[in-house]
Amino acid sequence: MAPYKRKVQYHETDKMGIAHHSNFIKWMEESRVDFLDQMGYGYVKLEEEGIISPVLSVECEYKKPLHFGDEIEISPEILEFKGIRLVIGYSFTHNGETVAVGKSSHCFLTPEGKPIALKRSFPEFDAALKKLAP
After folding, report:
1. What contacts 24+ positions apart, CB below 8 Å, involve 114-122?
2. Considering 14, 37, 70, 126, which one is annotated as catalytic?
3. Which residue has the higher pLDDT, 81 or 82?
4. Known catalytic residue: 14?
5. pLDDT tens digits for range 37-70
6. ∠ CA 65-68-72 to the nearest 5 degrees?
7. According to the model, what pLDDT value does residue 84 have?
């Protein structure tokens, strides 16, 4: 999968001129949406199929600051998927150097909030995720 690319916007920086830490969580979501689109299972398609995927947890480790105008690449990868919980890792790089790493975990539910067994209800999506999982 191709990494997700974006530039740090002025409004995303703090008084010190550094990208505010909260933006990394938003950028994880942007890159996850792009990642699923590249897989052929974007959020629009999933929601049309009756699948929602809430965030269960999120974490980020900051290694170097980013500033306005810095171009970053975010490379999401599936760290774990065993049919119920999906864990995605994120590597943030700027000029080839890692500036942050993160992780988010998700589950799959019906719009009414009931758990979905993807293997039974959506076998193609289940297989696509398992193919990319270690």
Report:
1. 115/84, 116/51, 117/83, 117/84, 118/51, 118/83, 119/83, 122/49, 122/51
2. 14
3. 81
4. yes
5. 999 999 999 999 999 999 999 999 999 999 999 9
6. 65
7. 85
**What are the DSSP calls for 69-91, one per residue?**
T-EEEEEEEEEEESSS-EEEEEE
Distance of alpha carbon 113 from alpha carbon 63, whole angstroms: 36
Q: Whole-number mean pLDDT of the chain? A: 96
- Between CA 118 and CA 89 the distance in angstroms is 21
Domains of the chain, start order: 4-132 (3.10.129.10)
What is the distance in angstroms between the CA of the first residue and the CA of the last residue of the chain? 15
Burial of residue 116, with CB atoms counted within 10 A of its CB: 0-12 exposed, 13-18 middle, 19 or more buried: buried
d(CA 92, CA 73) in angstroms, rounded, equals: 6
What are the helix (H) ranges across the chain? 22-39, 43-48, 118-121, 123-132
Q: Please say if the pLDDT value at position 99 is more than 90.
A: yes
114's tokens: 């009931």
